[in-house]
Design a protein that fits this description.
By secondary structure, the protein is of the alpha+beta class. The chain has helices spanning about 15-25, 45, 55-80, 95-120, 135-140, 155-165, 185-210, 220-225, 275-295, 320, 325-335, 350-365; strands at about 5-10, 30-35, 145-150, 170-175. Strands 2-3-1-4 form a four-stranded antiparallel sheet, with helices on one face. Bound molecules: heme C.
Length: about 375
């Protein structure tokens, strides 16, 4: 049994409609609504419509968007993962403005769009019952309808009476359409069938296209550039090989320079470690543990070895060693020298270079100049 949705009364003139509204409204039978071919000035007041809350909603959500963006960026840049960029403080709010602007617009537009469609206009709502009415043709042309709509129930007889009393010429009772089921088995089957046909068609077209048309490799100039493969003969170099030996002294990326040549070659190596307190602490530790027994705590060659050792450890603070390059000292640690055994197996690269720094410090301590006191 379909319910009554509304009773429509048609008027010939907007003024007649405007006059009828307060009379019908006074009877308080249901929700009052008008349907007109064009907007009529003063209609919203006559119907007693509230101002739309949309503006306020947008304002609140926009401000919320700005605060969200600010808070999020502040948390990232100043709290969770502070990074100093270009010497600026991590919480430099000026940099947050573009994103705050974007998020403000995002929140505001989504609120306006979705709020209007879903909350205020109650969409999705396909097919308003009035669109099915006989009066619809007249309403979209030259007549003005006043409707008393069910809220939620409607006494159709009383509504007709009220509209006729208010001067409506034609009356029409609109039934509420029973809601149609959406997911019918027929609908599901048709949809699945359509998807299957589309897949087969796309596959067939793709297969045909690849079979019938030659495939052009993209950017072949990068594939076909002249280069020599490994083990390939090469007419350019005298030895006919395509692969070259690395230049002597080459160091792999990320590795410290190594003393591969003679002690003189090592002159060009420079100490990669910074002269920091930590470096000197490490150097002191290495020297005390590995060098002091022979070279003495001061590096002056008077260690705790007895004559049974049979050799004389060098006085590292002597002028000769002060004139050494860092690399030459490093070389001696790696390769050893005469009676001094190589220390390479015991010390990693960092420890060796730290020891070099420490030897430098010992040399300077034993040969301090006046300026060093300042
Ligand atoms: C087992 C004893 C011993 C130890 C340990 C030792 N050295 Fe020596 N070192 C010597 C002797 C002996 C010489 C002198 C070699 C020679 O006859 O020229 C020497 C020479 C040197 C020289 C001069 C090399 C040159 O070009 O003449 C340096 C620099 C040096 N040692 C640094 C160190 C450092 C740094 C350590 C610790 C990492 C160390 N040594 C550990 C015994 C030792």
């Amino acid at each position: 049994m379909p319910k009554t949705f509304a009773v429509l009364g048609l008027f010939d003139h907007p003024d007649a409609l405007m006059q009828a509204i307060p009379q019908v409204k006074a009877k308080n039978l249901g929700r009052i609504e008008t349907y007109t071919p064009y907007p009529i000035h003063g209609m919203d007041e006559a119907l007693g419509l509230r101002r739309s809350p949309l503006g306020g909603m947008v304002l609140v959500m926009g401000v919320l968007g700005a605060l969200t963006a600010f808070g999020f960026q502040y948390w990232i840049s100043a709290v969770d993962y502070p990074i100093v960029t270009g010497g600026k403080a991590p919480w430099s709010w000026e940099a947050f403005i573009p994103i705050m602007f974007e998020v403000t617009v995002l929140f505001a537009t989504f609120t306006a769009g979705l709020g209007m469609l879903l909350l205020l206009n109650k969409l999705p709502f396909f097919g308003h019952p009035v669109l099915q009415s006989k009066a619809m043709r007249a309403i979209t042309r030259d007549r003005f309808a006043l409707a008393i709509e069910a809220d939620p129930e409607l006494d159709a007889e009383a509504a007709r009476e009220a509209l006729r009393a208010a001067g409506a010429a034609d009356l029409e009772v609109l039934e509420q359409e029973p809601p149609k089921p959406f997911l019918t088995s027929d609908f599901v089957l048709r949809t699945l069938g359509a998807i299957a046909i589309a897949c087969v068609a796309a596959g067939a077209v793709m297969y045909g296209a690849i079979k019938l048309f030659p495939v052009l490799p993209p950017m072949s100039h990068m594939q076909d550039q002249p280069r020599l493969g490994p083990q390939q003969a090469n007419a350019f170099f005298a030895d006919g090989r395509s692969m070259r030996m690395p230049v002597s002294g080459t160091v792999a990326r990320g590795h410290l320079p190594a003393a591969t040549g003679t002690q003189d070659d090592a002159k060009t190596l420079s100490n990669p470690l910074p002269r920091t307190e930590a470096t000197f602490a490490l150097g002191k530790q290495v020297f005390t543990r590995r060098c002091a027994v022979c070279h003495g705590a001061l590096g002056n060659g008077t260690g705790s070895l007895t004559a049974a050792y049979g050799a004389k450890p060098a006085n590292l603070t002597a002028q000769m060693f002060r004139d050494y390059a860092d690399g030459q000292i490093y070389w001696a640690i790696v390769h050893g020298k005469n009676a001094m055994p190589s220390q390479a197996a015991e010390l990693d690269d960092k420890e060796r270079w730290a020891a070099v720094h420490y030897v430098r410090a010992l040399q300077r301590a034993q040969n301090a100049k006046d300026e060093d006191l300042r």
